[in-house]
Amino acid sequence: MAKIVDIMQANEGVIYKYIINTVKGNHALKSDAGKENYIEQLFEYENQNVCLIGYCILNTQVQLIVKGSNKKVLNNYIKNVNRSFYVAMSLSGYPFNPIINSARIGNKNLLNKINELHQFAPAGPAMYPYCSYRYLEEGQTDAVIIIKNASGNVDMSLQDFERAMNEKVKVKQKTMFENEPFAIVLEQVQRRYIAKSGTTSESNIIFIMAELCDRTRLSYNKVAAKMGISKKRRDILIGVVCDMVIRRNYTIDTVIAKLKLKKVSRTGIILEAIAELNRVYNYSYDCILSLLGINDSGHNLLAVLVKGICEQFNEVFETVCVKFHLQGDLVALRARCGY
């Protein structure tokens, strides 16, 4: 007689992350209808032995985190979902690559892996309807109970859960599997951002560059070369960095990895991004640090930033402090800046 497994309990069952890529050139997931149908199949095939925990549906890839009574049950779940999607969409050919990557996840790493998965959402997890961020944020699913049990905090409040869902995590470059053909992405973004008549604004050029880099996995330098953007246009680079932070909800380290800025000073990128986010959006220094996912408790970055702006733009110390909404005793900061 088969052992009865209660997958709601932290010490029973297994959790796996699956990565499913579509066959090159297949467009089954590129439409909203395709993404919506795949999500429907994911929920349709859940049962007492399988619980969908997290998902992110992209144009050429599906990323899932699922808990089940055992690995065989989970593999069958994936096969059933994929087969049902294929039939429901009336596709002429099977859309998925037969090689499916999977990796086991421990209870302690579950929340980080969910947050990592959500960071692949192109428009940011809260704004992207084809990832599980909102589904989990509502807090009414078995998946939330599993997550709380895995964390060892079954009494976690909804506010604490939401806070945990918004914790920044660093996504390693090698884990970024999404890779779409440059020509296809370029055609899509040109239709969206380039006017048929007249000139294209630099802000739209930045939107195009950010999306090309994010979806094709090409480095910033390669995309810039293909688009005819000069390497001397540092302002375009910083604009792309800021766009990926604001509109795609990536941390600064994730952006640096995605753009493959190996030979560029990390500190320099951060300082310029802070200055640009303040200039464009009038965000406070603390708000910008939160967006970038970095910590400056010793005010080392702040001192370099304030001094640099004062010297480069002949600004007064007090004026710069007001611009960045700095509060409290600024005597120590003034001394560190040499004023």
Descriptive report:
- Residues 172-178 have low confidence and may be disordered.
- The chain is built from 16 helices and four strands.
- The longest helix has 18 residues, at 71-88.
- The N and C termini lie far apart (79 Å).
- It has helices at 32-44, 71-88, 110-118, 133-137, 142-151, 158-165, 182-193, 202-216, 220-227, 234-246, 252-259, 266-281, 285-292, 300-313, 317-323, 331-337, and strands at 14-21, 50-57, 61-68, 101-104.
- By secondary structure, it is α+β, with helices and mostly antiparallel strands.
- A four-stranded antiparallel sheet has the order 2-3-1-4, with helices on both faces.
- It is 50% helix and 8% strand.
CA-atom Rg in angstroms = 23 Å
Largest sheet: 4 strands, antiparallel
Beginning-to-end CA distance, first to last residue: 79 Å
Structural class: alpha+beta
Number of helices: 16
What's the layout of helices and strands?
Layout lengths: L13 E8 L10 H13 L5 E8 L3 E8 L2 H18 L12 E4 L5 H9 L14 H5 L4 H10 L6 H8 L16 H12 L8 H15 L3 H8 L6 H13 L5 H8 L6 H16 L3 H8 L7 H14 L3 H7 L7 H7 L2
Antiparallel strand pairs: 1-3, 1-4, 2-3
In brief:
50% of the residues lie in helices and 8% in strands.
Comma- or semicolon-separated keywords:
alpha+beta; 339 residues; 4-stranded antiparallel beta sheet; 16 helices; 4 strands
